[in-house]
Structure formats: structure tokens, C-alpha cells
Amino acid sequence: MVRVAVIAQFLSVSLLAQNVNTVDLIPTVNAPYSSIGFGEMSSLNYVSSLAMGGLSAAYNDPFNLNILNPASLAYLRSTSFEVGLKFKHSTFQEKDITNQNWTGNLSHLALGFPLINPINEAVDRKEPKLGLGMYFGLQPYSEIGYSIGQRINSGKITSASNLYKGSGGTYLFSFGNAFRYKSFAVGVRIGRIFGEETSNKRIEIDSFDNAFNTELTNKYQLSAWTWNFGLQYTIQLKETNFSTSRLILGFYGDSQADFNIEGTQFYYAESYAGSIDTVKYEENLSKNGRLPSAWTGGITYENIGKLRIGLEFGIGNWSQYRNELKPDQLANSSRWAFGIEWVPNIGSFNSYWEKVRYRGGFYTRKDPRVVAGEQLREMGITIGAGFPLVLPRQQVSFVNLAVQMGTIGDSSILRERFIKLNLGFTLNDNTWFYKRKFN
Fold it and tell me: How confident is the model over 342-363, as pLDDT tens digits?
């Protein structure tokens, strides 16, 4: 069943046993569609790959993290500490009604490192056949934030206002490990999803002076364990003193995750005089739900230090989604993405801009949420860059920038046009686990 509180076309309300007609609906917060399902799902991409259309399956980098496919951790050549920020400007349009707002948040905190230091291999003159990587990270997993007013008329006698509000969200704390032997890498990520959400529905009858207003509030905590696994296989195409090219095949899958809901439900009626009559109060509420499985596969061509270009496809089995507290029916999702990265001259001595990593991409996806019988669609393009910073001891770090521009929804229901600015700081250090030798 589709959630109420998003747009007029899928609100069906009965008042005093008469048909009602919606005449006004104005979204006022950042994510009206977050009232449906699990909310607005946050991207788990970090900024470097986000600028490339969100490539993840066949993406790995020695200095930037990719946690979506944990197998990529085995290719790390330096300890990386990453911090990300995100900002979003949205324009909502439903027929002739528009609204705009800005939002912002911390997008991720993460620490990843190789367990075999590449300096040791260079000193010992060994070919790096083995790779071990690990990471810890914390980031938003889903977000809920909406405040919608709906004006309802029922003939000439009764009018009412429905007010829907929701806030909160969930976070993901995760740990990943990866192993690589020669050209094959495998990795596993284990995570804990946790958070708190509040939803509120209030009905105010305007046309009767002595009418009771009613309000239903749900406040609950949610928790779940989740895990995924990933594979990457590298095919060497060409290797000379001046260039090395390769093809990367990647795949990862996310498991189903059962989650628990514990909270409180409060339902009361408020008289015109301000007195409150509690209709229902239930604490220690316990419900269950299920997040779906998903998989993503992709291919990337890379001329190391010069060019990277990739394509991927993924499916989310959201028809498996269950939530006993909010029994929404979702549809399976899918996503296509294309990305490219280009470095003019990574070894340039006299031009900083020739060492910058320029990135771009686009994506299209079917969102699992269904509105008025139609599955939401999202399309977007991405552009960005990785700005290298040389720190003491010649450690190379990056300031990564990604800009997303796209739309979701339809003007006949509710269309959101958005611009997202993502800023990431990656600090690298290759002296961890370095075994110093003295002659």
C-alpha cells in the first residue's frame, strides 16, 4: 500500500462518509518522497567514485576508498582517512506549485589501510602478488524529512486539513576486509544499521467549531545487521615502461537484512477548548521488517595514471521489502551508470592542473517507491575532480569534488530537480605497517 502524505494523486481520505477532493498540497521540507518505504536512501559512494556516475563494482584506487565493493580494499597502497560533506538544493514542482530548499549533512567518515605495506615490498624487491586491506566507516544510510499540508473539501459542509510530518533516519557503521592474490580479489563488508524515526499525522476539521482534532504519532528505534561480498578480477592488457592498461571485472551482492523496530505509538484527540483525550497509547512496541537483497556488476578499462572508463548495472529486489509498522509495497529497482576519469599528465612538473583528475558520468535508475501506480524514475549527470595535495614526506592526498544534477518523479505528481554538491578530503599515509631495517 502506497504511503499517504506525498502528493494529491495517491491520497484517498474518507471524511463523514462523503467523497473528498484534494485542493492543496505543499511540500515544505527536503524529501517529500521519504515518507514512502525506508525513506530517502543515502548513497554509499565516496566522492571520488560518485563523480563518475557512482561507479562501484569494477572501481578500485590505491589512494581512495570504495566500500560498496569491499574487494577493492585489497588494492589500497596507502592508509586513507576520508571525511565527506554533502549539500543539496532541491526544487519541487507539483502542477503550478513550487518550493525550494537547501540541506546539508556529513556524508561519511572512514579509515582504510593496506595490511601489507608497499614500501616493504619495494625495499625487498618483491613483486606484489598479495594484497590485504581493511576499513572502518560511519555514514548515513537513510533519511526521513517531510512536512506536508493537505487541504480537503467535502461538499459545502465540511473542510479539513491533513498535516503529515516525519523526521529521523538511520546510520551504517561498517567494517570491511579484503584479500587479493595476483589478479583476483575478494572482500566482505559487515555493517550495523541503527537509527530513530518519528512520523506524525494530524487531522484538523475546520468547519465545525466544536470538532475534535486527532493526531497519531509513531516514534521508534530501528536496528539491523547487514553484510555484502564482492569480487574483482583484473586482466592485464598492456604493460610497457611508459604505460600500463588493464580491464577490471567486478561484482558485489548485498544480503537480505531483517530489522527490528521498537518504539511508542500515541493516538489522541484534542477538543476545541484545548483538552486532550488519549485514544490509544502503546509503549514497548515491537515490530519486524526486512531489507532486500541486491547485486551490481560492472566493467572498467584503465590506462593507469591517464584514463579510466567504466559501465555498470545493478538490481535491488525491493519487492522483498517488509515493514510491519509501515506496510508499503515497493517495486524492484534497477540502475545503469557510466563514468570516466582523465588525467592530462600525472607526472607534470610545471602545471598543477595537468595533474588534476577530471571526472564525469551519468546514471539512470528505477526507484523502488511507487506513486499513483507509477514507479519513480531518477536520471542524473555527474561532474567532478580530484585535486592532489602533496604533504610532508611526499605523501599525496586529495580534495575530491563531485556535483550531481538530476530529476526524480514526474510533473503530473511531484517532480524534484536537484543539485548535490559533495566534498571529500582524503589524507593518505604509506608508513603504516612499515618495517624499518637497520644495517
Answer: 999 988 888 999 999 999 999 9
Q: Quote the domain boundaries for residue 59.
A: 8-429
CA distances from 132 to 66, 117, 135, 248, 265 (A): 14, 9, 11, 18, 48
pLDDT tens profile 112-137: 999 886 665 555 555 568 899 999 99
One-letter amino acid for residue 159 of the chain: S
CB-CB contact of 354 with 387 (8 Å) = no
Longest dimension (CA), the chain: 96
**Residue 439 belongs to some domain of the structure:** no
Q: What is the CATH number of the domain that holds 172?
A: 2.40.160.60
Q: Is residue 83 part of a domain?
A: yes
- Grouping H, G, I as helix, E, B as strand and the rest as coil, residue 439 is coil
DSSP string, 181-202: ETTEEEEEEEEEEEEEEEEEEE
Counting the structural domains of the chain, the total is: 1
- Segment (H or E) for 49: helix 47-50
In a domain, 3, yes or no: no
